[in-house]
Amino acid sequence: MNSCESKSFDVVIIGAGIAGLYTALMLSKNLRVAVLSKKDLYDCDSYLAQGGIAASIQNDDRQLHVKDTINAGCYVNDLEAVNVLVNESEKAINDLVRLGVGFDKNSQGDFYRSFEGNHSIPRILHVNGDSTGKAIMEVLVNQAKNTSNIEIIPNIFALDIVDNKNKCCGIMTFYKNKFVYLKSKCSVIASGGIGQLFSKTTNVDVLTGDGIAMAIRAKVTLEDMEYIQFHPTALYSKNNEKKMFLISEAVRGEGAILKNKCGNRFMKEYDTRMELAPRDIVARAISDQMKKTDSNYVYLDATMYEKSFLKNRFNKIYNECEDNGIEIYKDYIPVTPAEHYFMGGIKVDLFGRASMENLYAVGECACTGVHGANRLASNSLMEALVFGKRAAEDILNKVKVIDEDNFEDSVFIPQCKENHMDFSKLKENLKILMENNLGIVRRIDNIKSALEVVDEVLFKIQYINFKSIEQVEVYNMYEVARSIIMATLESKTSIGSNYIEEYSKDNVVLR
Ligand code: SIN
After folding, report:
1. Ligand 1 pocket, 51 CB below 6 A?
2. Radius of gyration of the chain from its Cα atoms, rounded to whole angstroms
3. C-alpha–C-alpha distance, residues 64 and 59, integer Å
4. Is pLDDT of 1 > 50?
5. How far apart, in Å, do the first and last CA atoms of the chain sit?
6. How far is 98 from 85, CA to CA, in rounded Å?
7. Which atom from ligand 1 is nearest to the alpha carbon of 54?
8. Each residue's pLDDT tens digit, 384-439
Protein backbone atom coordinates (compact mmCIF):
# COMPACT_ATOMS: atom_id res chain seq x y z
CA MET A 1 0.00 0.00 0.00
CA ASN A 2 1.19 3.48 -0.87
CA SER A 3 -0.09 7.03 -1.06
CA CYS A 4 -0.07 9.25 -4.13
CA GLU A 5 -1.42 12.53 -5.41
CA SER A 6 -5.20 12.71 -5.08
CA LYS A 7 -8.15 14.92 -5.96
CA SER A 8 -11.78 14.75 -4.80
CA PHE A 9 -14.99 14.87 -6.81
CA ASP A 10 -18.60 14.00 -6.18
CA VAL A 11 -18.77 11.96 -9.37
CA VAL A 12 -16.02 10.60 -11.62
CA ILE A 13 -17.11 9.36 -15.04
CA ILE A 14 -14.70 7.22 -17.05
CA GLY A 15 -15.41 7.88 -20.72
CA ALA A 16 -16.37 10.95 -22.71
CA GLY A 17 -18.59 9.42 -25.37
CA ILE A 18 -22.32 10.05 -25.55
CA ALA A 19 -23.06 7.88 -22.47
CA GLY A 20 -20.45 9.60 -20.26
CA LEU A 21 -21.15 13.17 -21.35
CA TYR A 22 -24.91 12.82 -21.25
CA THR A 23 -24.76 11.33 -17.74
CA ALA A 24 -22.57 14.25 -16.65
CA LEU A 25 -25.00 16.78 -18.12
CA MET A 26 -27.96 15.16 -16.37
CA LEU A 27 -26.30 15.59 -12.95
CA SER A 28 -27.00 18.64 -10.81
CA LYS A 29 -24.88 21.75 -11.33
CA ASN A 30 -24.04 21.64 -7.62
CA LEU A 31 -21.94 18.50 -7.97
CA ARG A 32 -18.23 18.41 -8.77
CA VAL A 33 -18.06 16.10 -11.79
CA ALA A 34 -14.97 14.82 -13.63
CA VAL A 35 -15.28 13.27 -17.09
CA LEU A 36 -12.18 11.33 -18.10
CA SER A 37 -11.18 10.78 -21.71
CA LYS A 38 -8.50 8.20 -22.48
CA LYS A 39 -7.19 10.23 -25.40
CA ASP A 40 -8.55 13.29 -27.20
CA LEU A 41 -12.17 14.21 -26.66
CA TYR A 42 -13.54 13.01 -29.96
CA ASP A 43 -11.58 9.74 -29.90
CA CYS A 44 -14.63 7.57 -29.31
CA ASP A 45 -17.11 5.40 -31.19
CA SER A 46 -20.00 7.76 -30.44
CA TYR A 47 -18.42 10.32 -32.74
CA LEU A 48 -18.44 7.81 -35.60
CA ALA A 49 -22.07 6.68 -35.27
CA GLN A 50 -23.66 6.89 -38.69
CA GLY A 51 -27.09 5.24 -38.93
CA GLY A 52 -28.77 7.18 -36.17
CA ILE A 53 -30.86 6.74 -33.11
CA ALA A 54 -33.92 4.50 -32.80
CA ALA A 55 -36.89 6.09 -31.06
CA SER A 56 -40.62 5.57 -30.71
CA ILE A 57 -42.15 9.01 -30.98
CA GLN A 58 -45.51 10.66 -31.66
CA ASN A 59 -48.07 8.00 -32.64
CA ASP A 60 -45.58 5.14 -33.10
CA ASP A 61 -46.68 1.82 -31.68
CA ARG A 62 -44.34 1.39 -28.66
CA GLN A 63 -45.02 -2.33 -28.43
CA LEU A 64 -43.83 -2.81 -32.00
CA HIS A 65 -40.45 -1.33 -31.04
CA VAL A 66 -40.35 -3.70 -28.04
CA LYS A 67 -41.23 -6.61 -30.31
CA ASP A 68 -38.55 -5.75 -32.90
CA THR A 69 -35.92 -5.37 -30.15
CA ILE A 70 -36.61 -8.75 -28.56
CA ASN A 71 -36.96 -10.49 -31.89
CA ALA A 72 -33.51 -9.21 -32.93
CA GLY A 73 -32.18 -10.15 -29.46
CA CYS A 74 -33.48 -13.77 -29.76
CA TYR A 75 -35.93 -13.30 -26.88
CA VAL A 76 -33.24 -13.38 -24.19
CA ASN A 77 -33.44 -9.62 -23.61
CA ASP A 78 -34.41 -8.18 -20.24
CA LEU A 79 -38.02 -7.24 -21.04
CA GLU A 80 -38.24 -4.60 -18.32
CA ALA A 81 -35.15 -2.87 -19.68
CA VAL A 82 -36.58 -2.99 -23.22
CA ASN A 83 -39.83 -1.38 -22.05
CA VAL A 84 -37.88 1.36 -20.26
CA LEU A 85 -35.76 2.00 -23.36
CA VAL A 86 -38.76 2.30 -25.66
CA ASN A 87 -41.05 4.23 -23.30
CA GLU A 88 -38.39 6.79 -22.42
CA SER A 89 -37.05 7.21 -25.95
CA GLU A 90 -39.23 10.14 -26.99
CA LYS A 91 -38.23 12.08 -23.89
CA ALA A 92 -34.55 11.50 -24.73
CA ILE A 93 -35.08 12.83 -28.25
CA ASN A 94 -36.81 15.91 -26.83
CA ASP A 95 -33.88 16.40 -24.42
CA LEU A 96 -31.40 16.26 -27.30
CA VAL A 97 -33.47 18.75 -29.32
CA ARG A 98 -33.58 21.04 -26.28
CA LEU A 99 -29.78 20.79 -25.97
CA GLY A 100 -29.43 21.81 -29.63
CA VAL A 101 -29.34 18.65 -31.76
CA GLY A 102 -30.96 19.35 -35.14
CA PHE A 103 -32.36 16.05 -36.43
CA ASP A 104 -32.96 15.83 -40.19
CA LYS A 105 -36.48 16.68 -41.30
CA ASN A 106 -38.51 15.83 -44.40
CA SER A 107 -40.22 18.30 -46.73
CA GLN A 108 -43.28 18.41 -44.42
CA GLY A 109 -41.06 19.49 -41.53
CA ASP A 110 -41.40 16.16 -39.66
CA PHE A 111 -38.43 14.15 -38.46
CA TYR A 112 -36.99 12.11 -41.35
CA ARG A 113 -37.07 8.53 -40.07
CA SER A 114 -35.31 5.62 -41.75
CA PHE A 115 -35.38 1.85 -41.81
CA GLU A 116 -32.59 -0.43 -40.61
CA GLY A 117 -32.44 -4.21 -40.12
CA ASN A 118 -35.43 -5.81 -38.33
CA HIS A 119 -37.30 -2.52 -37.73
CA SER A 120 -40.93 -3.00 -38.82
CA ILE A 121 -41.45 0.73 -39.30
CA PRO A 122 -39.02 3.54 -40.08
CA ARG A 123 -37.94 4.86 -36.65
CA ILE A 124 -34.27 5.85 -36.98
CA LEU A 125 -33.69 9.58 -36.55
CA HIS A 126 -30.46 11.01 -37.90
CA VAL A 127 -28.48 14.21 -38.28
CA ASN A 128 -26.75 15.43 -41.44
CA GLY A 129 -27.54 12.11 -43.16
CA ASP A 130 -24.89 9.73 -41.87
CA SER A 131 -23.12 11.98 -39.34
CA THR A 132 -25.46 11.53 -36.37
CA GLY A 133 -22.79 10.69 -33.78
CA LYS A 134 -20.59 13.62 -34.72
CA ALA A 135 -23.50 16.06 -34.51
CA ILE A 136 -24.69 14.78 -31.11
CA MET A 137 -21.15 14.69 -29.72
CA GLU A 138 -20.47 18.27 -30.79
CA VAL A 139 -23.58 19.46 -28.96
CA LEU A 140 -22.81 17.45 -25.80
CA VAL A 141 -19.13 18.49 -25.69
CA ASN A 142 -20.09 22.11 -26.15
CA GLN A 143 -22.70 21.89 -23.39
CA ALA A 144 -20.29 20.11 -21.02
CA LYS A 145 -17.53 22.65 -21.67
CA ASN A 146 -19.95 25.43 -20.79
CA THR A 147 -21.08 23.79 -17.56
CA SER A 148 -18.81 25.07 -14.82
CA ASN A 149 -19.12 22.08 -12.46
CA ILE A 150 -17.98 19.61 -15.13
CA GLU A 151 -14.23 19.15 -15.53
CA ILE A 152 -13.33 17.28 -18.72
CA ILE A 153 -9.88 15.67 -18.43
CA PRO A 154 -8.41 14.39 -21.72
CA ASN A 155 -5.44 12.00 -22.02
CA ILE A 156 -5.96 10.34 -18.66
CA PHE A 157 -5.86 6.57 -18.25
CA ALA A 158 -8.19 4.94 -15.71
CA LEU A 159 -6.30 2.03 -14.16
CA ASP A 160 -8.41 0.60 -11.39
CA ILE A 161 -11.46 0.89 -9.20
CA VAL A 162 -10.49 1.79 -5.63
CA ASP A 163 -12.80 0.15 -3.14
CA ASN A 164 -13.23 -0.32 0.55
CA LYS A 165 -15.29 -3.35 1.64
CA ASN A 166 -17.09 -3.51 -1.72
CA LYS A 167 -17.86 0.22 -1.73
CA CYS A 168 -16.33 2.17 -4.57
CA CYS A 169 -14.29 5.12 -3.27
CA GLY A 170 -12.88 6.37 -6.55
CA ILE A 171 -10.63 5.59 -9.47
CA MET A 172 -6.86 5.18 -9.65
CA THR A 173 -5.57 6.86 -12.78
CA PHE A 174 -2.34 7.49 -14.62
CA TYR A 175 -2.07 11.13 -15.67
CA LYS A 176 0.92 13.08 -17.00
CA ASN A 177 3.26 10.24 -16.00
CA LYS A 178 2.01 10.06 -12.43
CA PHE A 179 -0.47 7.97 -10.49
CA VAL A 180 -3.39 10.14 -9.42
CA TYR A 181 -6.17 8.88 -7.20
CA LEU A 182 -9.53 10.50 -8.03
CA LYS A 183 -11.67 10.10 -4.94
CA SER A 184 -15.38 10.19 -5.66
CA LYS A 185 -18.66 9.58 -3.90
CA CYS A 186 -19.94 7.82 -7.00
CA SER A 187 -18.05 6.52 -10.02
CA VAL A 188 -19.45 5.74 -13.45
CA ILE A 189 -17.79 3.48 -16.01
CA ALA A 190 -18.72 4.61 -19.51
CA SER A 191 -15.63 3.33 -21.23
CA GLY A 192 -17.25 1.87 -24.37
CA GLY A 193 -16.61 -1.36 -26.23
CA ILE A 194 -13.99 -4.00 -26.83
CA GLY A 195 -13.47 -3.86 -30.60
CA GLN A 196 -9.68 -3.84 -30.46
CA LEU A 197 -9.71 -7.43 -29.22
CA PHE A 198 -10.45 -8.40 -32.84
CA SER A 199 -8.43 -7.94 -36.03
CA LYS A 200 -11.45 -6.67 -37.91
CA THR A 201 -13.39 -3.99 -36.08
CA THR A 202 -15.22 -0.73 -36.70
CA ASN A 203 -14.19 0.49 -33.21
CA VAL A 204 -11.63 3.23 -32.60
CA ASP A 205 -8.21 2.10 -31.42
CA VAL A 206 -8.67 3.20 -27.78
CA LEU A 207 -11.34 0.56 -27.23
CA THR A 208 -9.37 -2.14 -25.46
CA GLY A 209 -12.00 -3.03 -22.85
CA ASP A 210 -10.24 -1.16 -20.00
CA GLY A 211 -13.39 -0.39 -17.98
CA ILE A 212 -14.50 -4.01 -18.11
CA ALA A 213 -11.02 -5.23 -17.12
CA MET A 214 -11.08 -2.89 -14.12
CA ALA A 215 -14.42 -4.40 -13.13
CA ILE A 216 -13.00 -7.93 -13.48
CA ARG A 217 -10.08 -7.08 -11.15
CA ALA A 218 -12.48 -5.53 -8.61
CA LYS A 219 -14.72 -8.62 -8.78
CA VAL A 220 -17.68 -6.64 -10.07
CA THR A 221 -20.32 -8.88 -11.68
CA LEU A 222 -20.35 -9.14 -15.49
CA GLU A 223 -23.09 -10.49 -17.75
CA ASP A 224 -23.68 -11.77 -21.30
CA MET A 225 -19.95 -11.68 -22.10
CA GLU A 226 -20.45 -14.14 -24.97
CA TYR A 227 -22.63 -11.75 -27.02
CA ILE A 228 -20.51 -9.81 -29.49
CA GLN A 229 -22.08 -8.18 -32.53
CA PHE A 230 -20.39 -8.24 -35.93
CA HIS A 231 -21.63 -5.54 -38.28
CA PRO A 232 -22.29 -7.10 -41.70
CA THR A 233 -20.88 -4.28 -43.79
CA ALA A 234 -17.51 -2.73 -43.02
CA LEU A 235 -15.68 -1.37 -46.05
CA TYR A 236 -13.23 -4.03 -47.22
CA SER A 237 -9.64 -2.90 -47.55
CA LYS A 238 -6.51 -4.88 -48.40
CA ASN A 239 -4.60 -3.01 -45.71
CA ASN A 240 -4.85 -4.38 -42.22
CA GLU A 241 -6.41 -1.33 -40.59
CA LYS A 242 -6.82 -0.81 -36.85
CA LYS A 243 -10.32 0.49 -37.46
CA MET A 244 -12.44 -0.32 -40.49
CA PHE A 245 -14.79 2.20 -42.03
CA LEU A 246 -18.48 1.35 -41.56
CA ILE A 247 -21.00 1.27 -44.37
CA SER A 248 -24.13 2.01 -42.37
CA GLU A 249 -27.03 -0.39 -42.24
CA ALA A 250 -29.09 2.65 -43.23
CA VAL A 251 -27.75 2.14 -46.78
CA ARG A 252 -29.53 -1.22 -46.84
CA GLY A 253 -32.41 0.50 -45.05
CA GLU A 254 -32.81 2.76 -48.10
CA GLY A 255 -32.82 -0.29 -50.40
CA ALA A 256 -29.23 -1.28 -51.25
CA ILE A 257 -28.75 -5.02 -51.81
CA LEU A 258 -26.02 -7.57 -51.11
CA LYS A 259 -24.43 -9.60 -53.90
CA ASN A 260 -21.70 -12.20 -53.79
CA LYS A 261 -18.45 -12.10 -55.76
CA CYS A 262 -20.28 -13.60 -58.77
CA GLY A 263 -22.86 -10.78 -58.70
CA ASN A 264 -25.73 -12.94 -57.33
CA ARG A 265 -28.10 -11.61 -54.67
CA PHE A 266 -27.97 -14.24 -51.91
CA MET A 267 -29.93 -13.16 -48.82
CA LYS A 268 -33.09 -14.99 -49.98
CA GLU A 269 -31.25 -18.25 -49.21
CA TYR A 270 -30.97 -17.22 -45.55
CA ASP A 271 -33.93 -15.12 -44.39
CA THR A 272 -37.21 -13.80 -45.80
CA ARG A 273 -36.34 -10.32 -44.51
CA MET A 274 -33.40 -10.42 -46.92
CA GLU A 275 -30.88 -7.56 -46.42
CA LEU A 276 -32.89 -6.22 -43.47
CA ALA A 277 -32.79 -9.41 -41.39
CA PRO A 278 -31.24 -9.05 -37.90
CA ARG A 279 -27.52 -8.27 -38.01
CA ASP A 280 -26.24 -11.62 -36.75
CA ILE A 281 -28.14 -13.42 -39.54
CA VAL A 282 -26.86 -11.08 -42.26
CA ALA A 283 -23.27 -11.24 -40.94
CA ARG A 284 -23.36 -15.07 -40.90
CA ALA A 285 -24.84 -15.18 -44.40
CA ILE A 286 -22.05 -12.93 -45.71
CA SER A 287 -19.41 -14.98 -43.94
CA ASP A 288 -20.90 -18.14 -45.51
CA GLN A 289 -20.91 -16.57 -48.99
CA MET A 290 -17.32 -15.42 -48.56
CA LYS A 291 -16.32 -19.01 -47.80
CA LYS A 292 -18.36 -20.47 -50.67
CA THR A 293 -16.97 -18.04 -53.22
CA ASP A 294 -13.46 -18.03 -51.72
CA SER A 295 -13.49 -14.28 -51.32
CA ASN A 296 -12.57 -11.77 -48.60
CA TYR A 297 -15.70 -9.71 -49.26
CA VAL A 298 -19.15 -9.52 -50.83
CA TYR A 299 -20.65 -6.49 -52.54
CA LEU A 300 -23.15 -3.90 -51.46
CA ASP A 301 -24.99 -2.56 -54.49
CA ALA A 302 -26.46 0.93 -54.12
CA THR A 303 -26.31 1.74 -57.82
CA MET A 304 -30.11 1.89 -58.13
CA TYR A 305 -29.90 5.38 -56.62
CA GLU A 306 -29.08 8.70 -58.23
CA LYS A 307 -25.69 10.17 -57.45
CA SER A 308 -27.36 13.26 -55.92
CA PHE A 309 -29.47 11.20 -53.50
CA LEU A 310 -26.47 9.15 -52.30
CA LYS A 311 -24.23 12.18 -51.98
CA ASN A 312 -26.81 13.98 -49.90
CA ARG A 313 -28.19 11.13 -47.76
CA PHE A 314 -24.83 9.39 -47.15
CA ASN A 315 -22.30 12.16 -47.59
CA LYS A 316 -19.65 10.68 -45.27
CA ILE A 317 -19.91 7.21 -46.85
CA TYR A 318 -19.97 8.69 -50.35
CA ASN A 319 -16.76 10.65 -49.70
CA GLU A 320 -14.90 7.81 -47.97
CA CYS A 321 -15.73 5.39 -50.80
CA GLU A 322 -14.72 8.01 -53.37
CA ASP A 323 -11.38 8.41 -51.56
CA ASN A 324 -10.98 4.64 -51.97
CA GLY A 325 -11.71 4.80 -55.69
CA ILE A 326 -15.33 3.61 -55.41
CA GLU A 327 -18.10 5.72 -56.99
CA ILE A 328 -21.06 4.28 -55.11
CA TYR A 329 -23.68 5.42 -57.67
CA LYS A 330 -22.03 3.20 -60.28
CA ASP A 331 -19.62 0.81 -58.49
CA TYR A 332 -20.45 -1.98 -56.06
CA ILE A 333 -18.97 -1.47 -52.57
CA PRO A 334 -16.79 -4.37 -51.29
CA VAL A 335 -17.86 -5.13 -47.70
CA THR A 336 -17.01 -7.64 -45.01
CA PRO A 337 -18.32 -8.23 -41.46
CA ALA A 338 -16.35 -6.72 -38.57
CA GLU A 339 -16.68 -6.60 -34.79
CA HIS A 340 -18.90 -3.64 -34.00
CA TYR A 341 -20.69 -3.79 -30.65
CA PHE A 342 -20.55 -5.61 -27.33
CA MET A 343 -23.92 -6.61 -25.87
CA GLY A 344 -22.32 -7.95 -22.66
CA GLY A 345 -20.38 -6.12 -19.98
CA ILE A 346 -20.75 -4.86 -16.44
CA LYS A 347 -24.07 -6.11 -15.09
CA VAL A 348 -26.29 -3.19 -14.09
CA ASP A 349 -29.89 -2.70 -13.00
CA LEU A 350 -32.38 -0.26 -14.51
CA PHE A 351 -30.54 2.66 -12.84
CA GLY A 352 -27.06 1.74 -14.04
CA ARG A 353 -26.09 0.37 -10.62
CA ALA A 354 -23.31 -2.25 -10.69
CA SER A 355 -22.80 -4.97 -8.07
CA MET A 356 -20.38 -2.76 -6.09
CA GLU A 357 -21.90 0.02 -4.03
CA ASN A 358 -21.47 3.56 -5.43
CA LEU A 359 -20.36 2.16 -8.78
CA TYR A 360 -22.38 2.63 -11.99
CA ALA A 361 -21.89 1.66 -15.62
CA VAL A 362 -23.59 3.14 -18.69
CA GLY A 363 -23.35 2.71 -22.46
CA GLU A 364 -21.62 -0.11 -24.30
CA CYS A 365 -19.49 -1.33 -21.36
CA ALA A 366 -22.67 -1.88 -19.32
CA CYS A 367 -25.07 -4.77 -19.65
CA THR A 368 -28.67 -3.85 -18.88
CA GLY A 369 -29.76 -6.93 -20.83
CA VAL A 370 -31.70 -4.66 -23.16
CA HIS A 371 -30.06 -6.00 -26.34
CA GLY A 372 -30.29 -9.71 -25.60
CA ALA A 373 -28.11 -11.85 -27.85
CA ASN A 374 -28.06 -9.40 -30.75
CA ARG A 375 -28.70 -5.65 -30.65
CA LEU A 376 -31.42 -4.10 -32.81
CA ALA A 377 -29.80 -1.51 -35.09
CA SER A 378 -29.55 2.01 -33.67
CA ASN A 379 -30.82 1.08 -30.19
CA SER A 380 -27.37 1.71 -28.69
CA LEU A 381 -27.29 5.51 -28.73
CA MET A 382 -30.77 5.48 -27.21
CA GLU A 383 -29.62 3.05 -24.51
CA ALA A 384 -26.75 5.40 -23.61
CA LEU A 385 -29.18 8.33 -23.20
CA VAL A 386 -32.04 6.59 -21.40
CA PHE A 387 -29.90 4.66 -18.91
CA GLY A 388 -27.36 7.49 -18.55
CA LYS A 389 -30.16 9.77 -17.39
CA ARG A 390 -31.52 7.14 -15.01
CA ALA A 391 -28.05 6.60 -13.51
CA ALA A 392 -27.67 10.37 -13.06
CA GLU A 393 -31.01 10.56 -11.23
CA ASP A 394 -30.00 7.72 -8.93
CA ILE A 395 -26.60 9.29 -8.25
CA LEU A 396 -28.26 12.58 -7.28
CA ASN A 397 -30.03 10.83 -4.41
CA LYS A 398 -27.02 8.73 -3.51
CA VAL A 399 -24.36 11.43 -3.18
CA LYS A 400 -26.40 13.26 -0.56
CA VAL A 401 -25.94 10.41 1.90
CA ILE A 402 -22.32 9.42 1.24
CA ASP A 403 -19.81 10.49 3.82
CA GLU A 404 -16.43 11.50 2.39
CA ASP A 405 -14.70 10.01 5.43
CA ASN A 406 -15.50 6.60 4.01
CA PHE A 407 -12.95 7.18 1.27
CA GLU A 408 -10.04 4.81 1.07
CA ASP A 409 -6.88 6.83 1.69
CA SER A 410 -4.39 4.07 1.31
CA VAL A 411 -4.46 2.75 -2.21
CA PHE A 412 -2.70 0.08 -4.18
CA ILE A 413 -0.33 1.49 -6.76
CA PRO A 414 0.84 -0.88 -9.48
CA GLN A 415 4.61 -1.16 -9.79
CA CYS A 416 6.38 -0.09 -12.97
CA LYS A 417 8.93 -2.79 -13.64
CA GLU A 418 11.00 -3.44 -16.71
CA ASN A 419 9.34 -6.10 -18.78
CA HIS A 420 11.02 -7.80 -21.70
CA MET A 421 7.96 -9.24 -23.38
CA ASP A 422 6.94 -8.00 -26.80
CA PHE A 423 3.57 -6.44 -25.99
CA SER A 424 2.84 -5.33 -29.57
CA LYS A 425 3.22 -8.93 -30.68
CA LEU A 426 1.03 -10.15 -27.81
CA LYS A 427 -1.65 -7.67 -28.85
CA GLU A 428 -1.50 -8.72 -32.49
CA ASN A 429 -1.63 -12.41 -31.55
CA LEU A 430 -4.70 -11.87 -29.37
CA LYS A 431 -6.55 -10.03 -32.12
CA ILE A 432 -5.97 -12.90 -34.53
CA LEU A 433 -6.85 -15.49 -31.88
CA MET A 434 -10.16 -13.79 -31.10
CA GLU A 435 -10.98 -13.17 -34.76
CA ASN A 436 -10.42 -16.82 -35.65
CA ASN A 437 -12.00 -18.46 -32.62
CA LEU A 438 -14.54 -16.10 -31.05
CA GLY A 439 -15.87 -14.57 -34.25
CA ILE A 440 -19.09 -15.01 -36.21
CA VAL A 441 -19.03 -18.83 -36.18
CA ARG A 442 -17.50 -20.51 -33.11
CA ARG A 443 -16.39 -24.08 -32.39
CA ILE A 444 -15.96 -25.50 -28.90
CA ASP A 445 -12.58 -27.18 -29.54
CA ASN A 446 -11.17 -23.94 -30.98
CA ILE A 447 -12.45 -21.91 -28.04
CA LYS A 448 -10.81 -24.33 -25.61
CA SER A 449 -7.48 -23.97 -27.42
CA ALA A 450 -7.85 -20.18 -27.33
CA LEU A 451 -8.35 -20.38 -23.55
CA GLU A 452 -5.05 -22.22 -23.13
CA VAL A 453 -3.18 -19.54 -25.07
CA VAL A 454 -4.81 -16.69 -23.13
CA ASP A 455 -4.12 -18.35 -19.78
CA GLU A 456 -0.49 -18.90 -20.62
CA VAL A 457 -0.02 -15.22 -21.50
CA LEU A 458 -1.90 -13.98 -18.43
CA PHE A 459 0.34 -16.13 -16.28
CA LYS A 460 3.44 -14.57 -17.82
CA ILE A 461 2.38 -10.92 -17.82
CA GLN A 462 1.34 -10.34 -14.28
CA TYR A 463 -0.59 -7.14 -13.73
CA ILE A 464 1.95 -5.45 -11.48
CA ASN A 465 4.76 -5.80 -14.00
CA PHE A 466 3.99 -3.11 -16.49
CA LYS A 467 6.15 -0.36 -17.82
CA SER A 468 3.68 1.63 -19.88
CA ILE A 469 -0.01 2.28 -20.46
CA GLU A 470 0.18 0.25 -23.67
CA GLN A 471 1.23 -2.74 -21.60
CA VAL A 472 -1.74 -2.31 -19.24
CA GLU A 473 -4.02 -2.14 -22.27
CA VAL A 474 -2.69 -5.46 -23.50
CA TYR A 475 -3.16 -6.99 -20.08
CA ASN A 476 -6.73 -5.65 -20.01
CA MET A 477 -7.41 -7.12 -23.44
CA TYR A 478 -6.29 -10.58 -22.31
CA GLU A 479 -8.37 -10.37 -19.12
CA VAL A 480 -11.50 -9.40 -21.07
CA ALA A 481 -10.79 -12.08 -23.68
CA ARG A 482 -10.61 -14.69 -20.95
CA SER A 483 -13.93 -13.61 -19.57
CA ILE A 484 -15.54 -13.78 -23.04
CA ILE A 485 -14.07 -17.23 -23.63
CA MET A 486 -15.27 -18.56 -20.27
CA ALA A 487 -18.79 -17.18 -20.80
CA THR A 488 -18.91 -18.73 -24.27
CA LEU A 489 -17.81 -22.12 -22.99
CA GLU A 490 -20.29 -21.96 -20.14
CA SER A 491 -23.18 -20.85 -22.39
CA LYS A 492 -23.74 -24.35 -23.86
CA THR A 493 -26.27 -22.98 -26.38
CA SER A 494 -26.09 -21.30 -29.73
CA ILE A 495 -28.12 -18.09 -29.70
CA GLY A 496 -27.90 -14.98 -31.87
CA SER A 497 -24.40 -13.56 -31.93
CA ASN A 498 -23.06 -16.49 -29.89
CA TYR A 499 -23.30 -18.98 -32.76
CA ILE A 500 -21.61 -22.22 -31.75
CA GLU A 501 -21.48 -24.77 -34.54
CA GLU A 502 -21.85 -27.83 -32.29
CA TYR A 503 -25.09 -26.49 -30.76
CA SER A 504 -26.49 -24.74 -33.83
CA LYS A 505 -28.74 -27.65 -34.83
CA ASP A 506 -30.59 -27.22 -31.52
CA ASN A 507 -31.01 -23.53 -32.23
CA VAL A 508 -34.80 -23.44 -32.19
CA VAL A 509 -35.30 -19.69 -31.75
CA LEU A 510 -37.79 -18.72 -34.46
CA ARG A 511 -37.38 -15.08 -35.32
C1 SIN B 1 -25.00 1.58 -38.66
O2 SIN B 1 -25.12 2.74 -39.03
O3 SIN B 1 -25.15 0.62 -39.41
C4 SIN B 1 -24.61 1.32 -37.25
C5 SIN B 1 -25.68 1.69 -36.35
C6 SIN B 1 -25.68 0.79 -35.15
O7 SIN B 1 -24.65 0.20 -34.82
O8 SIN B 1 -26.75 0.59 -34.60
Report:
1. yes
2. 22
3. 12
4. no
5. 54
6. 19
7. 8
8. 999 999 999 999 999 988 876 666 656 666 665 666 789 999 999 999 999 999 99
